[in-house]
């Protein structure tokens, strides 16, 4: 059923989206403020269940693109993604019937809501990554045959570029990234325009609702002084993201981060409180892999989420700091993201990682003497 | 009057265009081969005098964009500029009635001829630089109010980007350069689409004919064993480019060249044969300024051309080599290129040069003891 998204949903939604963003997808504080302003100015947003979208409807996903390290300092006005949408509509010679997120994340779950508030379009409760990924070809839309092209990239001065690379979504990413770098490291996009029938076939369904579920589970646990990670594991059990593993608890000991070729790349390390164990997380905008004592415990496309140990607040890659006390969790992904064709596009090898994919729920549970435990 | 351009024109045209290209605008050998192939395959090209273009006609200039250092190694098939033209036409929802060069140069006087041969469109005998300049905002079209946007950039795999920066032609250049870099350092473009009336108002007229005149003057002098520079000066006297000055004769002693941010930048030096005098030329794709013994003798927008001393063959910046015996000449530009609004866009200050513009014909004639002379 469709539902009306109001200001009251935003705290939970942004927090949950940032958890699903696996360290990327943008800062939830900025994302929340953007939607709040848009809803106050233009009114609430209708969220459509994917089953409600007409097969013949034109759905145009919208998003922000760029290095989180830059996004952090370059806040959009909210008009930019609408510029991208309009540029693509003009190019297509057709008007969108709805917009949709391309990924989950503190900002990228929110941008389509801003577009929806400003344009009066509904938002489809689904996306093309089921988490956040750093590159535009890494979408289930593309994995299952939708071309990203033509796509529009828009800047803050109303400028736009409509890029058409035919069926080559990787080439599209390459050119769009070049434009984004020239636009200052962050831009807004409209891409993978598709029919309602294609949404049903290729999108990860109900990820906005999922983000809200994740965010509210954490909030409720805080209110009831129970363990938010346990609460979250319990809630996820009923969703397509059924398995949660606690990977590590400890203190951030090192962060290496650089903005390179339009991405934030680097790694973070943590040591357990007893000093006996070590966590290493590698990221390209998003967390790609978590190793504990040198062994892979969770790897793309499964979700590696780094949470603040006390409140379970998600920490994005650009906010990781020495000394933070963190809990790293792994969350399993839906089957549609684990097929051979999906793994070819956003599995470990697609990032140059020398590991095979292994579902997080099948990795061994490791209980460390300093109080690690598995909630399920 | 319109005329039919055939293979027989190409040697003179390419040579003359390379002289007017002031070190840039692409390699004339490659340009000549491209047009020869296109004419052999598709037939000769109709060249329209600007006075013959209907005021209401749609004229879409086409060109190659990139660093000459890369162009030199990455030869186009000829299809790329047509891809750019078609992408822009599709975006505009209109078909071009003619194409036109954006600048003079060994390749960029030729690309519109390739487009014309392949599409059957006529080419307008005019351009937007009256020489070659490195950046897309440096066109008389823009100086006199035409917007470059929307423009199309195309790559060798059929991919394209349609860039729209409204009235900001400098921003257009910035984004198009970013796309060009991502396309490997060279791309093909269609931009500054305009009416026939605007062609008459803003273009430098008859520069294809001029290139042919320049090239044939040099050839004829060679055939008659007379001084090609003197012959060239004589022929230019009857054109909008009325003044030619010999700036220097000597031997290239140093070349510093780097490919940087999508441009070939650097400087070349020469010493006179008696070792007493020194020439310094700075370039950004094209020659920007010639200093003799530290004094400005010719500066943008006037033309600094470096010719092989024996045959007066133009030498492009990417072909400058230690030991070449060269004659550097300066050529005056038409009045339309020397107005305050034109100098603001492509005068010395636009390139960060700390010199005022001074017409080449008003600089002092310097006769060096080793046989320099002024042919007029």
Automatic annotation (TrEMBL), chains A, B:
Q: Which Gene3D superfamilies match?
A: CV3147-like, CV3147-like domain
Source species of the chain? Saccharopolyspora rosea
Task: Report the superkingdom from the record.
Answer: Bacteria
Give the protein name, as stated in the record.
DUF917 domain-containing protein
SUPFAM superfamilies the UniProt entry points to: CV3147-like (SSF160991)
Domain called S-Me-THD N-terminal: residue spans: 9-164
Q: Which Pfam families does the record match to this protein?
A: S-Me-THD_C (PF20906), S-Me-THD_N (PF06032)
Q: Where is the S-Me-THD-like C-terminal domain?
A: 168-360
């Amino acid at each position: 059923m469709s539902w009306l998204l109001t200001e009251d949903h935003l705290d939970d939604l942004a927090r949950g989206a940032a958890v699903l963003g696996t360290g990327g997808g943008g800062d939830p504080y900025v994302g929340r403020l953007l939607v709040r302003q848009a809803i106050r100015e233009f009114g609430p947003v209708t969220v459509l269940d994917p089953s409600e979208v007409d097969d013949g409807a034109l759905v145009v996903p919208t998003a922000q693109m760029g290095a989180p390290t830059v996004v952090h300092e370059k806040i959009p006005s909210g008009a930019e993604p609408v510029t991208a949408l309009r540029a693509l509509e003009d190019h297509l010679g057709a008007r969108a019937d709805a917009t949709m997120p391309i990924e989950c994340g503190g900002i990228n779950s929110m941008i389509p809501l801003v577009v929806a508030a400003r344009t009066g379009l509904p938002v489809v409760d689904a996306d093309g990554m089921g988490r956040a990924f750093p590159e535009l070809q890494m979408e289930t839309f593309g994995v299952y045959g939708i071309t990203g092209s033509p796509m529009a990239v828009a800047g803050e001065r109303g400028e736009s570029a409509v890029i058409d690379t035919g069926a080559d979504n990787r080439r599209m990413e390459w050119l769009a990234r070049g434009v984004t770098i020239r636009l200052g490291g962050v831009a807004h996009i409209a891409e993978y325009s598709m029919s309602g029938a294609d949404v049903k076939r290729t999108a990860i369904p109900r990820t906005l609702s999922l983000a809200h579920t994740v965010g509210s589970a954490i909030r409720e646990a805080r209110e009831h002084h129970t363990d938010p990670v346990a609460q979250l594991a319990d809630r996820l059990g009923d969703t397509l993201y059924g398995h949660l593993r606690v990977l590590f608890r400890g203190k951030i000991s090192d962060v290496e981060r650089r903005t390179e070729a339009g991405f934030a790349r680097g790694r973070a390390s943590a040591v357990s409180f007893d000093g006996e164990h070590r966590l290493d997380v590698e990221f390209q905008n998003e967390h790609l892999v978590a190793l504990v004592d040198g062994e892979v415990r969770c790897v793309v496309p499964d979700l590696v989420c780094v949470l603040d140990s006390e409140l379970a607040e998600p920490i994005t890659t650009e906010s990781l700091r020495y000394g933070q006390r963190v809990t790293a969790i792994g969350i399993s992904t839906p089957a549609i993201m684990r097929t051979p064709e999906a793994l070819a596009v956003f599995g470990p090898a697609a990032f140059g990682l020398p590991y095979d994919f292994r579902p997080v729920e099948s990795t061994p549970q490791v209980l460390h003497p300093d109080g690690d435990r598995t909630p399920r």
